[in-house]
Amino acid sequence: MSQTLTPELAEMATEVCGYAKDFGLDFFDVSFELLDYDQLNMVAAYGGFPTRYPHWKFGMQFEELQKTYAYGLSKIYELVINNDPCYAYLMKCNNHVDQKLVMAHVFGHSDFFKCNYWFSKTNRKMMDEIANHGVRIRRYIERYGQQKVEEFLDCCLSLDNLIDYHSPFIARRRAQSEEEKEGELDSANPTRLRAKSYMEAFINPPSYLDVERRRIQEKLDTMEKFPDEPQKDILLFLMENASLERWQRDILSIIREEAYYFAPQGMTKIMNEGWACYWHSKIMTEKACSASEIVDYADHHSSTVAMQAGSLNPYKLGLELFRDIDDRWNKGKFGSDWDECSDAAAKYSWDRKLGLGREKIFEVRKIHNDVTFIEEFLTPKFVEKQQLFTYAYNKQTQEYVIDSRDFQSVKDKLLFSLANFGQPYIYVEDGNFKNRSELYLTHRYDGTPLRMDHARDCLENLYKLWQRPVHLETVVEKRKKVMTYAGAKHEEKIIK
Amino acid sequence: MVHRIDPDNNRFKEIVRGKIKQNLKKYISQGELLGKQGDNIVSIPLPQIELPRFRYGQQQAGGVGQGDGEEGSPISAEPGEGGQGAGDQPGEHFLEVEVTLEELAAILGEELELPRIEPRGERTIDSFTDRYTGIHRAGPESLRHFKRTFKEALKRQIMAGLYNPENPVVVPIHDDRRYRSWRLKAVPESSAVILYMMDVSGSMGNEQKEIVRIESFWIDTWLKAQYRQIETRYIIHDAAAKEVDQHTFFHVRESGGTRISSAYQLCREIIEKDYDLDQWNVYPLHFSDGDNWGGEDTALCMKLLKDFLIPASNVFCYGQVKSAYGSGQFIKDLTEAFPDNETLLLSEINNRDEIYRSIKTFLGKGK
Questions:
Q1: Has residue B53 been placed in a domain?
Q2: Beta bridge partners of residue B128, listed in sequence order
Q3: Closest Cα of chain A to B103: distance in Å?
Q4: What pTM, to 2 d.p., does this model score?
Q5: So what's the ipTM on this one?
Q6: Chain A interface includes B98 (CB < 8 A)
Q7: Count of domains forming chain B
Q8: Where does the pLDDT of residue A484 fall: very low under 50, low under 70, confident under 90, or very high at 90 and above?
Q9: CB A155 within 8 A of CB A255
Q10: Which residues span the domain enclosing B329?
């Protein structure tokens, strides 16, 4: 179905690869494949993995990509997969300049995948792993029926952001195995001695069972709440503690694993794209582009980093920030000398000729993610030059308006939208709430309320997994509230 | 070619059509693709299913943008969901391209499964075009059919035993010549007029007008793709009606009471004056929030509809836009007065998501 590169393109890839190496990029081997548009759309719909498990959401993404392509609204040039070797899919019908640019771009991504710290704990054999996931889920579908498995998948997918994004590189705890669960206490069924039915009343006298039942109940009553600390990895908590069937637990673990695999890509979107753009422009303009190609290159490049009116393009932001860092460290515009200098003219013509830019950007791409990248390197000058602003919703006019161009508020807003993917922080507080094994979650309120209809439906999904009442503590209209779902209807209670 | 993704894709389509998994129905949104038409941004329907998630209420959240503008000035593009970077889609590039009006109409038709409109029988003007359909033995040299001519020559030579496969020379003589011939074909050519009527009384707010604007744009686009010649007239009314140009139609804000009959009366006058019903397909469209001044005026409306407007129209469309002030009574009166009328199409539009459904009601009959 897919084909490897034509001899001409293979030669081009070798050439571009050489330039990338000369610049000091350190990447996984890249395996290029050519696809036509519907194959490329399909692979993109599956998040880059053609062997992924079946689910309608991939069909939905495919539909969108097909439509945007067919109606000429947009097209995908390339797709890169974080894997060793790195897979890159190219669109067959691209012209040669585009292919060259895209290859240079791909080597940038591959270098980033390999060297950035936040990717260091991702599975580099994900191609195989995902195929494995696909096989497992297909097997469950055969055994339990599509309806049942799909419903469970929908449920898990609606909760798949409940993981601890900010520590994906900590070696994660394995889920508790089935055997460890054996010794659990159950007050409804106290341990009996084996007996033939007519001997039952003598060997396990009801009075003894009553005593035993009371003893277990007392023990359960005194059990402390768990987890000890609020836990952010709610999916892991559910895997370990919810009473799920084996296949359900396995599906949950698959969803969680894939969520963690994709997490660093979301966490480094600005950097990753910025880095790739930085290098494709460097390689193309300094090495690879011939005179006849430069106009096509410029056209493509400018559309990639173009600003949409009013919205932020991560390609552009990342690229400009890397260039800014390069420039500042080349000229020595950092450190206490620079910070303490208040002479605008001196600052304007500041150049210590340090030439540290290249070294610095390689260091940055190694240790930072988007949050720390912005925190560390966004400067007032940069915000001004790039015309960044914050916007907010104006209720009177029912439209989004520019709120402020102040450096601090731009930075705060940007960081807010990046931290935890711009998603609310939700923790498991207690898995044995009220001592009735009810699930108690807290939303760490940071000034922005939850979207309530979705929150309610998520509680329903959580209830499906937990099978006991679920509670969520949040803040609505500046008052603390507990939302509860116990299987029949939603309740909300204001608490102190 | 069969793709691995086809089952997933089909399953998604079935969910959207409501065939399976009713429990997901409430998550289906009529998303849209944005296309550009000149300076205007237009949308192409694209249904999406959004699973529930713990997320922020987006409207209050805001975000960071880039570009010109003073503090407090609105930003042109609606921002996307903030922080939707969850990297399912590594390293994609998107490029924007323009769409033509014809393409848009085709897309709309395809998406909403609209039937082509069949103009009413006697209202077609026939014009004639030449179609080349046959072969004749005589004709002008410019229309000589070379292939047929040589075929005839070859047949003749073989029959006469003059053909030598070793030296395959074929020479046509006069009798071998064949010519393309044509036939006159009548092509029905029909014209249509759309008469937009809108209630601009105080109760119609900006949001209501926006809905009317979007809906009229699509109806315009579709009808333009169906008829060669199309005219558009605009009528606004509060307590009195007047004819206006397009810009005024969408931007004027009047206040005061509502007498729908005034618009219907004006509509009738325009049709009688300018459009010969034997030659024109007539599409009156009326948008209002359903508030009329009183039962007397409503009775007058019904009479106008019954006596003239409904018989004269291909379809008479009434779209009732929900507003905070309107009572929404008028559509009930219409339903009561004309139960099961094929020509009178009624639709209630409560919000923007319902525009596509409403368009389908109006245009789905293929009339």
A1: no
A2: B186
A3: 8
A4: 0.66
A5: 0.78
A6: yes
A7: 2
A8: very high
A9: no
A10: 191-363
